[in-house]
Amino acid sequence: MSTSWRMRVLLSLALIAPSAATVFAAEAPATTQAAGEEAETRFLRFVGDSKAGGSLQTSEVTLKNDKGVTVRLVSAVHIGEASYYHELQKSFEDCDAVLYEMVKSRDSGPPVRGQHSDSAVSQLQRFLKDSLNLSFQLDEVDYSPKNFIHADMDAETFQKLQQERGESFAGIFLQSLMRAMSDPSAGRVYDDEPVDLVDFMTRPDGDHQLKLLLARRLGDIEREASGLDMLNGTVILTERNKAVTNALKKAIADGKKNIAIFYGAAHMVELSDRLDLMGFKPVSTTWHTAWDVKIRPDAPSAFMKLMSRTQQMLQEQQ
Q1: Distance from the CA of 70 to the CA of which of 153, 214, 246, 261 falls in 20 to 30 A?
Q2: Domain count, the chain
Q3: Residue 7 domain boundaries
Q4: Per-residue pLDDT in tens (0 to 9) along the chain, 318 residues
Q5: What phi, psi does 18 have (nearest 5°)?
């Protein structure tokens, strides 16, 4: 199986799988488009800058019904630029309710900034955060405001349903790997991608080269549905979407008129279908830059940085 497919499988699961608290922009401002400007509603995309760089962006889709209720589907990725989360936090201040995702114990309160988990998915997310010099959502978002409402399954119910169905993160991962291995289209996706490790290691700006490679894969995941369609009907996606839909109906019944659903981008395709059945129609889409992936041609390559660190270690030993 190609490196391309291995990354796509890994990232698709890291994008959606819940940790103790789940949730993957920068200087560039958000951009807005009217509904219908794109042929399809997207929630995650990579936008190139014609210089082998670009940005990974998540959308904020605004929908309204004929009773004057506004719902914003605010997509999130688990790790991103700190400024990305601060921008989203600011946008929530005027909301009557912010329905957020988090698989947590039934009686626990809102998460505390910097809260860590020992789960495999959380460790993967933090490894990616450190490797890509990004921030983790739970380190940047403040969940304590009164308009923040937990709208996800509790950990006890989540685990119970997974056990009843024989569902697990490992099982879904293996299923996705098997599908990836049988895909004849696996291979290099972009013509300007590195052809081998030497090519990758000697390109300028080693820090951003890996970030670019991963950002492109994440941007492709939703459009191709690769690595995500196998989650339809699962506890990890569909059952949690039922939970937030029930929370939305309650918020509307309680008189809330301006509601945000702050959930992982992978949930949004199905959630938008659920909202359509509830009479909500898209009005506009705003894009936020989650990862800044501008390649700096004068920055050292990964090989140059490795050589520099090796030289420094040898000098320290003398």
Answers
A1: 153
A2: 1
A3: 3-317
A4: 344 444 444 454 444 444 333 332 223 334 555 444 444 567 888 888 766 788 899 999 999 999 999 999 999 988 899 999 999 999 999 999 999 998 888 888 887 777 666 666 667 777 777 778 888 888 999 999 999 999 999 889 888 887 887 876 656 555 555 555 455 455 555 666 666 677 767 777 777 777 887 777 776 665 554 445 556 667 788 899 999 999 999 999 999 999 999 998 888 888 999 999 999 999 999 999 999 888 777 777 777 777 777 877 777 777
A5: -85, 135
